[in-house]
Amino acid sequence: MEDIDNKDKHLLLLLQKNSREQLKILARQIGLSIDSTKKRIEKLKQKGIIAKFGAFIDPKAVGYDLVANVQIKLHNISEEELAKFTSYLKAHNNVTTLITTLGDFDITCVLIAKNTGEMDSLFREIRQKFKNLIADWKSVINLNVYKFEEYNL
User: Fold this and answer.
1) Which class is 59-142 in CATH?
2) In the chain, which residues have pLDDT < 50?
């Protein structure tokens, strides 16, 4: 773990709650000047501790009523085949998350769809296109998100 002190940890917790918070408010809450706070944020970005700033979008609020977690087990494939598969999924508009994993499955991804018909088509599209690579496929539909990407440091 990178060397971060308690002020960095506090800053990270505040940024998780609102990454668009004004520097003067962040500085006041961690007990530093605005310049020192800005430098800390830049340092955390340079170290890769802050990977990016963003917003959590509720898929249902933008018309995607179905969210599925999909675990995919692959046959013994080459690096080239894996790169082609992951590139395809990364570029797909309905794939919101893509993670390689260690365990019973090789890849976990999150797919969004407007309805069951679209989700079914999406599943069949990916499975058919990569039928020679996919050994197993397990999916579950997400109902509610109670916590997402929050780290208590």
Assistant:
1) alpha beta
2) none
**Which overall architecture, per CATH, does domain 6-46 show?**
Orthogonal Bundle (1.10)
Q: Specify the residue for token string 């944020």.
A: 41
What's the pTM value of the predicted model, to 2 decimals? 0.79
Torsion of CA 100, 101, 102, 103, to 10 degrees: -130
Domain with CATH 1.10.10.10 in the chain: 6-46
Which ranges in the chain are annotated with CATH 3.30.70.920? 59-142
For the chain, what's the residue count? 153
The strands making up 66-74's β-sheet, listed across from edge to edge, are: 95-100, 107-113, 66-74, 134-142
Tokens of 12: 């990270």
CA–CA separation, 26 and 101 (whole Å): 35
In the chain, % helix, strand, coil (3-state, to 5) comes to: 40, 20, 40
- DSSP run (H or E) holding 121: helix 116-129
pLDDT tens for 44-65 read: 999 999 998 888 888 999 999 9
Alpha helices in 47-100 (DSSP H): 79-91
Beta strands in the chain (DSSP E): 66-74, 95-100, 107-113, 134-142
β-bridge pairing 95-100 and 107-113 = antiparallel
